[in-house]
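Lab notebook, bench 4. We co-purified these components, and the gel suggests they stay together. Before we commit to crystallization screens, I want a quick structural picture of the whole thing.
Request: model the full complex, all chains together.
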Amino acid sequence: MLIQGRVHQGTIRRGIVFTGVEDISAGVPTVKLRVDKIVAYCHSLDDLPEGMTGELHLTGDGMETLPEIKCPFTLIGLD
Amino acid sequence: MKLNRDIGVNDAAIARHLEVLGDIHVFRGTTEGFAGNSVLQRIGLTPTSVDPVVATAFASEGASKGVNPLILFGPRSAFGETLGMGNVRSLLEMEVSIGLTPSQFAATAPNSVSLARARAILAEMGIEVPSSMYNADAFLRQSPRLTPEQIRKFIERASQ
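Here is the predicted assembly.
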């Protein structure tokens, strides 16, 4: 699955795992989504710093939860 | 001049900018001396917007970090021949990229205006930008964008 957005806090690194999705209307669904690839400005990156926009290519469990959540949402719980 | 068709403004908008402004003008909201993040330094790219409202919003974000927020701006011709693609939010941010590191962009930009002055100019146009925002996203989703004529007025006022 591919999601697009902007990093609001911290740095997202390739290989990290998100363990939750924060959304006011939907509560906090449990997920286990690994960042396999990061792309920004047609560059494949190892990390995406705070404030920057980009694409995250995710694999794992709970992906079916994401399309049901209104944007914007926040992936939380970095391993 | 090369213009990528996937940038944050469509061909008709580009034509209007060229007609009214004589060039595509780019604006970057930042803080004084900020060298950009490590990725932008590494790939040699500076995100900018063709709309001063967007740049002012990002300068307002910079204000939340507390260090001399400002808007750097100038015509595309001052920065090189090619405008690059914006990123995943290019439509929201009216974004184009410039093939310079943020430090190179800052050193090259022919004009700058303080956040306070930019806010005052936009307020005269009826657009209120907060003096400080932790996150500009909500503002960007509800704020208007300037017409080329309004951008020309902003440039004239900000360059005084």
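The beta strands of chain B are 2-3, 25-31, 46-49, 69-75, 82-84, 95-98, 111-114. Worth comparing against the SEC data before the next meeting. Residues 1-7 of chain B have pLDDT under 50 and may be disordered.
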